[in-house]
Each structure stands twice: as C-alpha cells, then as structure tokens.
Specification:
The complex is a heterotetramer, with two copies of chain A (114 residues) and two copies of chain B (147 residues). Chain A is an alpha/beta fold. Chain A is built from four helices and five strands. Chain A has a five-stranded mixed beta sheet. In chain B, helix 1 runs antiparallel to helix 2 and helix 2 packs antiparallel against helix 4. The chains are: A alpha/beta (114), B alpha+beta (147). Bound molecules: adenosine-5'-diphosphate (2 copies).
C-alpha cells in the first residue's frame, strides 16, 4: 500500500546525481541511503534531485540527514535541487540548509557544486 | 456567519500510507474554504505528520485500532483533530538541533511535532479516557509561516 | 492476500461543494492502491456525481442530514458506498439523448447516473430503512472505460 | 463554500473566445450562459477554452449543452479546446461531440472554426 521510491543514479567522474522519483518516507531507506552507499569511491560531489518527489515526510527527511552525515564524514559536498517552495521552507526550518544548499534547478545546482 | 461549525470526518485504518488520504481530504476542505496554496501545503504536512504519529505512536501500528480526523470549518479558521486510541503526548515538541543530529548526538528523527507546531497557528494535545488527540488550528487570514 | 477489507470512511455535510472532498479522498485511496491516473479520473467523476445526487436528491439539501462515503479496499478492486438518508433510487440510469436535449425535448440535465454507470465497473442502488446507498466498484486491472 | 467560475471574453469581429477559469458546476450559470448571452450580435464563431477548468460535473456540462442549443438556434459555430483527456471522453460519451468539436489547443480550435 506504499509506493516505492525509485532512484536513478548518474555518475560521471567525481560527480554523482541521485534522481529520486516518488514520495520519500520511512520506506525509502534503500532509495536514499542504499543508493548513496553504492556510489563509487571516487565520488566527491553529490546532487540530490527532488524534482519528481511530490511528498517528503519527517522520516524521509531524516534519511536525507543521514545521507548528509555520511557525506560530511567522507568530505563529500552535497547540494539539492528541485524542491517545491514548501519543502525548501521545511528543509530550512529544520536547519538542513546549514549542511547542504538548496537550488531551483539542476543548472544552478551544478554551478554551486563547482 | 456560521453558527455551527461544518464538520467533515474521516476514519482511517492504522496503516502507514493512509496519512496521505488525510492529507488530501484536509487539503480539499481547506481549498473549499479559500485557503491559499501555500497554507494548504502547510496544512498538508502538519496533518500528515500528526496522522503518522497517531498510527505509529498512538495506535502503535495495531490494525485493530482506528484514526479519526475531524475537520471543523469555522468562520475564520479550520480546526483539525487527529484522534488515536493511545495514551497521548505528554511532552512539548522537541526543537531539532541539526548540529547535534549531524554529530550523531541526537537521533536524525524526532522532527514531526516540531514541524506541526511550526506550520499551523495553534496546536494542543489532549488525552481522554477513550483515547487522545492532537488539535490543530489554521487561520484563514494568517500569512504563510516562514519562521 | 487481504482477508478483511481495509476501510476508510468519510462523513460529509449535506452541502454542494463537498463532493470535491469525497472526490479527492477517493482518489487518494485509489492512488495508494496503484490505480492508473485514467482510472482515478473515472472514479473521481463517478464519486462526485454520486455525492451530488446524495446531497441534492437523497438528502434534499437538508443540512441536518449527512452523507457517508465508505471506501473498502479489496484484493483487486475498490468498493465505494455513498450513503444518504433518503428513499433511494428506484429507476435505471437514463441514457441521455443529445439530439432530444438539443431539440428541447429532454432536460439538459439528467446525466449523472449515466456517467456513474459508464465510468465504473459495477453500480448498484440499495435502499434500507435507515437510508439508501449507491455502491460503486472499480477494478484494479480493468482498462479505462472508453465506451 | 463554492469557488466562483470566472470567464474572460475576447471578442474580435465575428469570433468570440470564452475563457473559463475554475470548476464548472450548477453554480456557473452566469459564467457560461450569462457570458454567452452578453456576446455582441455579430458573433458567428465561438471558442470555449477549458484549459483552466480542473473539474466539470454533469450540471456544469448541462450548462454547456444549453449554450450549444442557443448557439445552434442562432446558427453560430461552437468549438471547444483545452479539455483534459478525461473530459474529452466524458463529453464524447454524452454525445456533445455531435454538436461541437473538441480540440487539443487554441491553434487547432481556431483552424477548425475557419
Ligand atoms: N499521537 C501520539 N501518541 C503518543 N505519543 C506520541 C504521539 N505523537 C508523538 N508522540 C511522542 O512524541 C515523540 C516525538 O514525535 P515526533 O516529533 O513526531 O518524532 P518521531 O515520530 O520521529 O519520534 C514520539 O517519538 C512519541 O514518543
Ligand atoms: N441518491 C439519490 N436519492 C434519490 N434519488 C436519486 C438519487 N440519485 C439519483 N436520483 C434520482 O435519479 C434522477 C436522475 O439522476 P441523475 O442522472 O444524476 O441526473 P440529475 O441529478 O441531473 O437529475 C434524479 O433526478 C433523482 O430523481
């Protein structure tokens, strides 16, 4: 009764893009952390694409925080794009903007990650 | 002027996923009332989080129990009660500390009650003999919360 | 396999406009079940028309009465009962005749029951002492109705 | 508790476009028939724009039928555009396609009306 989140992964040298599709909830561990852990060891920059995520709940956001923790330890830079105005507000309220940056679209996100 | 509030009631099974049904039901009532899309989004997240808590913590995922969402339209506001059959909430909403979370000193979870409080205009948790409820109120003419 | 159907229940006030709340509640249950967007659209229109009829004809716009929508998830289908406190439907759905309508020989209205029947897989009207209901069933693996 | 349908009217010679905005229901009499009746007497071709109508119910469709009846009597040609696939199906089921034509967009509708 819960739709599975899908994640498409684009890897290119030290840059990886995780493109989520579907809701991100407590059922999305594999789609968020599983896909993050499977990235190749050379990854230094990570883009999280939320443009096809209609709904995230607080358990789903907790998975994003766990990804940010792991990336922080591994000195990887993470930037997000494609969140709706509502979820930009929610991420900001929860302080995530301190450990990642939130961009309107992929072009802006790619620029930010350098 | 509306004398009696206009009431819509939704009974949900105790199953994760059904918070989305509550979310869309609440959103459509708010849209009928003329809430702005921003405020409807705030309400959707708050109602979903309260339903998830009712399912997980209140009813402890026991599928023999139910969750009841009551939407009461008043003159200038919408009141939403999310009722479960558990013992209720006896603490104030924890303010998540992202630095402590990132340092592993605090669970990455524990953000639901904070979000509810941040997104609606009033929140109250009430325990009764028959169960407990969260009472959320959102005002028609308030600005979207940006804090 | 689901032994007991999973039931969601919605109680609406007898007010035109609230059929949209039923529409979105039913749509979100169907989406949880994995119905295609086409079939969700069919269900939305059928549920809205049945609710409008319950409000207008069943409860005759009497705001002291209520409309109850029960959504039961079965293995391969969703059953929706739309219950009002009236005497029920004792005729078969009229098939609208556009030529007669255009010629002014038939009311331009009278299309709701036909649409319901055309858009879902099963329809039944039942009258009981306490009220009446329309029972709609839509199958998960049926094609969208194009006839 | 019911949102009002708005109608923007564009008139140009013998062509008029009625651009509906909002749901079309039993409350839309003024927005559909009222605006039709107020068109200037020279009107011969009418485009109905449904692209901003998320929901029509059978009472709303009955108003569209009444408009078609009146236009038919006045020898005006009516074409529709911007209906979702679902409402194209519903209009077709109800036989409306016999008295009007249904087009994807304004360009196709303008071509059809000649
Ligand atoms: N409806 C409820 N019934 C009982 N306890 C609740 C309820 N809602 C919240 N709680 C308690 O409050 C705590 C914090 O909830 P919340 O902030 O939503 O975070 P989380 O659900 O991630 O733990 C829960 O862990 C639970 O102990
Ligand atoms: N829930 C109901 N209770 C009583 N009568 C009903 C109900 N639903 C439909 N009817 C009867 O069937 C008729 C046809 O309904 P319908 O096809 O939806 O068209 P309309 O509502 O435009 O008349 C109604 O006019 C009414 O007499």
């Amino acid at each position: 009764m819960v739709t599975q989140t899908k994640t498409k992964v684009d890897e290119n040298g030290d840059l990886a893009v995780l493109r989520f599709e579907g809701d991100i909830t407590s059922h999305s561990e594999e789609a968020v952390l599983g896909k993050y852990r499977a990235l190749n060891a050379a990854t230094k920059k990570i883009l999280l694409d939320f443009s096809k995520v209609p709904y995230l709940n607080s358990s789903g956001i907790a998975l994003v925080i766990q990804l940010l923790m792991a990336a922080n330890k591994a000195s990887q830079k993470v930037v997000c794009f494609g969140l709706s105005a509502h979820f930009v507000k929610v991420f900001t309220m929860l302080g995530l903007a301190k450990y990642t940056s939130l961009h309107a679209d992929e072009t802006a996100a790619r620029e930010a990650v350098g | 002027m509306i004398v009696d509030p206009i009431v819509t009631e939704l009974r949900l099974p105790t199953r994760l996923g059904f918070e989305k049904v509550a979310m869309y039901t609440a959103a459509s009532v708010a849209e009928l009332m003329g809430f702005s899309p921003d405020r409807v989004d705030d309400l959707k997240t708050a109602v979903a989080e309260a339903c998830i808590n009712a399912i997980e913590h209140g009813n402890k995922l026991n599928e023999n129990l139910g969750v009841v969402v009551t939407l009461s339209i008043e003159d200038e506001s919408l009141e939403v009660k999310i009722r479960d059959q558990g013992a209720g909430v006896h603490k104030v909403a924890h303010v998540p500390d992202i630095d402590r979370k990132m340092a592993g000193e605090e669970t990455p979870r524990g953000m639901g009650m904070f979000l509810i409080q941040a997104l609606v205009d009033e929140v109250e948790y009430v325990s009764e003999q028959s169960g407990s409820y969260a009472r959320l109120v959102i005002h028609l003419n308030a600005e979207a919360r940006t804090d």
